[in-house]
Write a structure and sequence with these properties.
The protein is α+β, with helices and mostly antiparallel strands. The chain has 23 helices and 18 strands. The protein has an 18-stranded antiparallel sheet, sandwiched between helices. It is globular, with a radius of gyration of 28 Å.
Length: about 550
């Protein structure tokens, strides 16, 4: 059973790597309209950015190819995925959907280019089974755990999995070396569901959804479609949400995410489509943009991360009303001597959080009670709209001992701004407004209603060199790869809330997909060396510098 899973997952992974999501006119035709999540991979584009022949040069590929437990037929496909019979120029899809009872159908779809080779692939997965013809489709059971159905154009793999209870997980045992058994469900349901997908009517599929088709036709490498309403309907607590009217926040909501691997960066865009009631509110209460001048007041030139968001407090009041929670909030606030009007009217909706001046020591602990030494400055800021209402909130919190200087949390305010920090001087310096620390990252999030910035390289560089030589090598290689990341809320476009995100690398000239694959392969080799040394009983001496780190670690072949 374990070998079957290993081989089958490897075969599916190969088909995923060599397929493209570009499927003009047919996008979504075999995907139910209520599918909670759908994943596409435009590997035609991915393979242009990272050719399969380059992957063959990686140590990971070489080790898999040399694995004596891998059957010869699998090695042939792994070496040349075209021999799988899968059409490399058309799409592959992965999605899941609720089954007939307490189970789920997990589906992998794609296109067939060579029916003979594809049939051979399935027979290699389970030589004890035979291909059957049903309703003009070929069907094939794989170890009675999954079903494959195909015709001359398309293929579908379906796994029906039961949703295990907590007790079932507990009964799996506590041995960390063994994996819990997979709760496969009804094979007949898998089969009937797979066949149903081939005759799915357009009105019941995502083919009718222009938003989904727009996502697929956009230039990009990976696509993610999320049906928020569908995901929430999978939850057993959804009945309670309906009683509280919280389903108003998820009804008819969909999101589309598009990810591209570019030179020196991974870039993504998102569109979130809300129901009409929520969209009308978002349009009515349009937020202000983040200003660079406010970001520059943070009293540090060593920023690790920043999160800023601007919103209209009235929007929160409206959302509480449509969900029916306004009465509950008023009741809770009244116990503190407050009203919902106090909470909404006190602030202007300009929120800022910063994390800076990070210094961390993660040297190998001498005993189990040792803790890493971490020092940093944080700042929380909110704008004040009504001084009297804001004072009522602070007084109410202080009555609960929520903020006290003796706890190591300090706050101060002026007529327009409230600042809270773990260092009194830091909060006061921000309020003084005399700082003018300009940085390039500020331009990335200013001009948007929301933004997040994380200096990944700064975080990695703040960590002291570990005494473990392998861990040191991982840290040094990571610092040479990762730069920073940022995300922004970009406003309303095409009747959707739009956003974007970017992860950047230190190497600006190489495609990020190549950078990531090289990085993963280096980590794989280091982990391989660790296992070899542990098996030989070799300790990991601390290196004196980064050059010594690389020189101290032998090549993967042991030379």
């Amino acid at each position: 059973m374990r070998n079957f899973l290993k081989i089958f997952i490897a075969a599916i992974a190969i088909s995923f790597l060599v397929s493209s999501c570009k499927n003009k006119g047919g996008a979504g035709s075999m995907i139910p309209s209520d599918a909670p999540m759908v994943f596409y991979a435009n590997t035609k584009s991915l393979l242009e950015k990272y050719p399969y022949d380059e992957f063959k040069n990686e140590q990971l590929f070489k080790d898999i190819k040399a694995d004596s437990t891998l059957p010869e037929w699998a090695k042939i496909i792994f070496n040349d995925p075209k021999t799988s019979g899968i059409d490399l120029d058309k799409g592959i899809t992965f999605f899941f959907a609720k089954g007939t009872s307490n189970n789920f159908n997990f589906v992998l779809e794609g296109s067939v280019k060579d029916a003979s080779n594809f049939e051979k692939l399935n027979k290699n997965l389970d030589s004890s089974q035979s291909v059957s013809d049903e309703k003009g489709l070929k069907t094939f059971s794989i170890h009675n755990k999954a079903i494959a159905v195909w015709n001359g154009n398309n293929f579908v793999y379906v796994f029906n999995l039961n949703s295990p209870s907590i007790g079932e997980f507990e009964n799996q045992g506590t041995d960390s070396t063994t994996m819990p058994s997979i709760p496969f469900g009804d094979l007949n349901e898998s089969k009937s569901y797979a066949i149903k997908l081939f005759s799915l009517k357009k009105d019941s599929s995502l083919a009718k959804d222009k938003r989904f088709n727009d996502l697929i036709t956009e230039k990009g490498d990976l696509k993610i479609w999320t049906n928020t309403e569908g995901i929430m309907n999978l939850s057993p607590t959804m009945g309670m949400m309906s009683m509280l009217k919280l389903d108003a926040l998820t009804k008819d909501n969909r999101s589309a995410t598009n990810i591209s691997f570019e030179n020196g960066s991974i870039q993504g865009t998102s569109k979130t489509y809300y129901n009409k009631e929520l969209m009308d509110l978002f349009k009515k209460y349009k937020p202000d943009d983040i200003k660079t001048d406010e970001l520059s007041k943070i009293p540090s030139g060593d920023i690790t991360g920043v999160a800023a968001i601007n919103f209209k407090p009235e929007l929160l009041s409206e959302i509480l009303k449509i969900t029916g929670l306004d009465g509950m909030v008023n009741m809770g606030a009244s116990q503190l001597g407050l009203t919902l009007d106090d909470l909404i009217g006190a602030i202007d909706g300009h929120i800022l959080f910063s994390f800076s001046d990070l210094k961390a020591s993660f040297n190998a602990p001498q005993n189990i009670d040792s803790k890493p030494d971490i020092n940093f400055n944080f700042l929380f800021k909110t704008g004040i709209r009504d001084q009297a209402k804001f004072k009522k909130i602070i007084d109410a919190i202080n009555k609960l001992n929520g903020i006290t200087n003796s706890s190591g949390i300090y706050y101060n305010s002026n007529d327009k701004t409230f600042a809270l920090s773990n260092h009194k001087e830091f909060a006061n310096s921000f309020l003084d407004g005399k700082q003018n620390n300009k940085a390039d990252w500020m331009n990335k999030i200013s001009g948007h209603s929301g933004g997040v910035y994380i200096n990944i390289n700064k975080i990695l560089s703040s960590v002291n060199t570990p005494s473990d030589s392998i861990a040191s090598a991982i840290l040094q290689k990571s610092k040479a790869v990762w730069n920073d990341a940022f995300a922004t809320a970009n406003g309303i476009s095409d009747n959707a809330i739009t956003g974007s995100f970017t992860v950047t690398f230190m190497d600006k000239n190489t495609n990020s997909l190549k950078i990531l694959n090289s990085y993963i392969d280096q980590l794989y080799q280091l982990e391989k060396i660790r296992k070899q040394k542990e098996k030989a009983g070799i300790t990991f001496a601390p290196p004196s510098d980064s050059t010594a780190i690389d020189n101290a670690i032998p090549a993967p072949d042991g030379k």
